[in-house]
């Protein structure tokens, strides 16, 4: 969507309606009184019958708002928004088309703020999660024990569906509060134990906010880097299959050192050990997992859903380097599988890597080690070799069973 940097009309006034039209600030009321055009939901427009300005409901779909505003450029325009427009509100849509100086925001009480007021507890430490129009599985990416969350819901991601997920994640003792129709005459605010609500048949208003406090043993979802190997789906015995071992995985992630806002590639992702942890612990980055084998792709998808990284882990079926062509250039890349063409893969990835980017690659076979050393040549690189042994029982005695050593290389692009 093109930014309207050439907007010449007065700034568009964006008014948060909060819970009650009577809660508007003096500046918001002045903007309404001076408006020549008011755009809003039908219920919000009906709250101001005394205003003489032209009133138009929001277009459907909302993508038509840009053209509607542009067609009225030069008029004094006011938009009415639910809650606080800068909190999961219309501001996101507007700022795709307008520069901030072309907008004047009038904040108000959000539904989350009002829900915590009904609960009577501070909310500065609560984690806000929007499930509105998003997969319920995305909640798995943030759930931790003894934490407070505020959830924006929709018809699919209802309080009951959320409670069922809590039970599945080991948090059946969690406390769930549901705030419905906040600010309306039929407002309700109720408490439920998660285990009870998960099996209940209760109708909730579609306009609801959920507050939850996680309680219970948990231990289903990871709360710290280093997910146990046996928690991944691989199609093999738990802890086995095409999966980077935890000790190797953590070293790889330390070498990649992902930053928020970065794009990463996991080339030859297998069942997703590296890419899942990468996406989980860097939620504000984008990770592309490239894999060609159908069975591994199936388990990669299962692990993506299982650990909730559905928003920022993108599965790319296909053979690299051809499958890389349509992807955005990366800041960090890990090459874990190459099907015998590691040198070609390294060259292709290095050409696409952004300046200052990090490339990490692993080698187990002697052929792949030769390719790694040949690619690095005289360029500066960091090398480390990991030799891992884990305990097993043999004839009733503990023995340390070694795995094949893994050579890791890291290079930074000038």
Primary descriptors:
19 strands, Cobalt-precorrin-4 Transmethylase, domain 1, 24% strand, 25% helix, Methyltransferase, Cobalt-precorrin-4 Transmethylase, Domain 2, 12 helices, single chain, alpha/beta, 414 residues, 3 domains, 5-stranded parallel beta sheet, 7-stranded mixed beta sheet, Rossmann fold
What is the structure about, briefly put?
This protein has helices at residues 26-34, 42-45, 65-71, 91-94, 111-119, 159-168, 194-198, 246-256, 273-281, 294-306, 342-352, 366-376, and strands at residues 12-16, 37-40, 54-57, 77-81, 103-106, 127-130, 148-152, 175-180, 188-193, 208-213, 263-267, 286-291, 313-317, 332-335, 358-363, 382-386, 389-394, 397-402, 406-412. With 414 residues, it is of the alpha/beta class.
Describe the structure.
- This protein is an alpha/beta fold.
- The protein folds into 3 domains: 12-109, 3-Layer(aba) Sandwich (Cobalt-precorrin-4 Transmethylase, domain 1), CATH 3.40.1010.10; 112-213, Tetrapyrrole methylase, C-terminal domain (Methyltransferase, Cobalt-precorrin-4 Transmethylase, Domain 2); 229-412, Rossmann fold (3-Layer(aba) Sandwich).
- The protein is built from 12 helices and 19 strands.
- The longest helix has 13 residues, at 294-306.
